Structures are given as structure tokens and as C-alpha cells.
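Can't attach files on this board, so I'm pasting raw text. These are the components:
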Amino acid sequence: MKLIHSDKRNILLMMWIHLLIDGISVSTIFILGGSAETIALAVIAYDVLAFALQPLIGILVDIKKIEKQFIILGLGMAVLVTYLPLPLLLVSILIGIANAMVHVGGFSITYQSSKDFMGPLGLFVSTGSIGLGLGLLFPQTRLLFFILSILSIGLVILLYKKMQFEPIEAHKEKYQFDVFPIILVLTVVLLRGFGGSILPPKYESTTISTMMIYIALFVGKAAGGLIADKIGINNTILFGFVPSFIGFVFFSNNQVLYLISVILFNFTMALTLYLTIRALKPFASFAFGLTAALLFFGVVLASGFKEVTSVKPWMGGIVVVISCVLILLANHQISKNTIIGGTQ
Amino acid sequence: MFLDVAVWPILIFFGIVVVIIIALIILSIFIVIRIVKKHQKKLYNPPAPEEDNWSGIKNE
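---
Top answer:
C-alpha cells for the assembled complex are below.
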């Protein structure tokens, strides 16, 4: 089965919306500013709501099919809050909720347009890194994000009736529900959040070099799904993990090799998302939300871990190796539980 | 480091954040488990493919 014109249009539009919501959210919080404590509190409130609310919103989207409404409402809310004279903490809370709604809504439309390919999933998650990087490093882009978001809300309203979906092929398969592969794949997601945060580069950090990391994240997430569609999940994991292990452990002081390692390590983003969806079907949006929440939980654990101990490159290596083994095992288990065509 | 008084507020705040995240994740998992238990047959045994319906009609 191939992607048709309307599928590609939906996926491109959702990638764009993902970039905008992350850009407008982060640029708004960072341009408002305040004391160090206020900013820290605002960022934490935003992150907790934006990530940890996604599983609950995902359940709503799976049951009520209100993804388009959530995108319009969420992006509209973010646009409204951007220039209102509200306290920073309140802005962060409102933008965090708006961000979660748009993420889950955007993912749901992407997934329903994906025809069960992994490429679109990776493409959707990838653009958030660019929005995040631009908003964080160049908060003055807020006005640009504001204007583009208003135009994009109009575009979504214009295409509202054209975004109709047929049930995708994977839903016609019988699946033996099993908790074990879910735990395996979600552990990999948690470890990626944790590992990504305890593996900072050893070279000198500048605005350009930080933006390069966000671009590497974008490339890795986008390429992972597309490559997996061509060469399969297991080959992509081995092709991505083994060189990234070497890069993180032995060459984290070399900018080029570090960036290549970031790209390769993030190949798994689309794969873990795809495997979680298959293991948790028919709750695709909940699966997406759960991976987002656990990824963030991994980041929070890593920040606590860094407070109590000094991080060594070999720790990152261990995270990469464990992730590699778990994801291969999860893929094997999920494939075993899927009975194609509904026949035993 | 742990015994340093200045670290405690940070750790308590960090703990609260962790508890909120875990609570939200567990709540969502609990809701999904309830839905799955209620509708298990319908969710994991999709209707037969269309061809079967046609053969049924032909047999009639």
C-alpha cells in the first residue's frame, strides 16, 4: 500500500504544525523572562503539562476522535496566550496544556495518514526539534511563530472536512495482547530520555553548536523511520546503535562524530513509537502520549542523576547497549503476537 | 552532598515533579486497562474481512 496525495499533505501539514507549536511555546516562555527561580518553575510547569498530560489526551483522542478539534483549540490557545499580559507561570501552564493537545492531535492525523509506515511517524516527531531549537536559542522568533500559527490554524480549518481517514491495515490484524513487549519498548523510551540527557558533548558549546545538535536530532528522528521502512527494524537498530555506541563512548569530544552519533542514536525514535503503537493497539494516540511522557520522565531522572553523581561516557555506552538488546527483543515479541489477516 | 541543607528543597521539589509525572502516567494506564477489560473481545478480534461477508451472502 502506498501513500496517496492527501496522506502526504496531511503528514507535511502536521510536521509543520509540530514545528510551530514547539517554536511558539518555547519562544514565548523564554522571551517573557523573569528571575532565575520563576523561569525554572515556569519551564518545569510547562514541561510536566506538555509531556505528562499526553497519555490522558491520547485516550480522549482514541475514543472520541477529536484530533482536529484539539489541533485548532491547542494552537489557538497558544496564539492567544502569546501576547496576553499574563504572569509567566500562568502562561507556561496554558501553553503546556495547548502543546500537549496539538502534539497528540497532530500525531493522530499523521498516524491515520501513515498507512502503517514508520517513515511518517519519524517525520512528524522530527520537526519538534527544529521548533524547540529556534524557540530556545532565538526567542525573538516569537512574532514569526505567532503569525505563522494564525495562518496555519486557517489552513487546518480550510482542510478540516478533507481530513477523513479509513481504518489502517494494521487494525485488521489480530493481536495477542501482552504486557511484556510493552514494558520492554517503554523501557527503551525511558532509557533514550535518560541517555540523551546524560550524554552531553565534551566539546565547547556555542549557540551554533547547540543548534547543530537540534538539527542532528531532527535528521536522526526523520531518517530512522524512512530507513526502517526500507531495511527493516532489526537492521536499522544495528545500523544505528553500534556506531552511536562507539561515538558516544570514545569520541564525545569530537563535534562531527558526536553529531553523527546523535543522528544514529535517534533512529530508534520512530521505531519505538511504531512498536509501542503495535503493542498497544488500538490505542495509537495513547501509545504516542505514553512514549512522550516516559521520554520526559527519563530526562527528569537524568537531571536528578547528574545532581548526585558525575557522569562518565561508559554510562552512556551501557544505556545504548541495553536499549539495543531490549528493542530487538520487543520487536521479536510483538511480531510473534501479531497474527496477520486475522487467522490463527 | 545529600546532607547539605541547601540541597533538600531542590530534592523535595524534584520529588514532587517525579510524583506528578508518575501519577499522570499511572492514571492513564489505569483508564486504558479498564477500557481494555470492558471491550476486550471487540478490540482484539476485529470483524472478519469483507470477502467472508460476500461468501456468506452467496451461500444463502
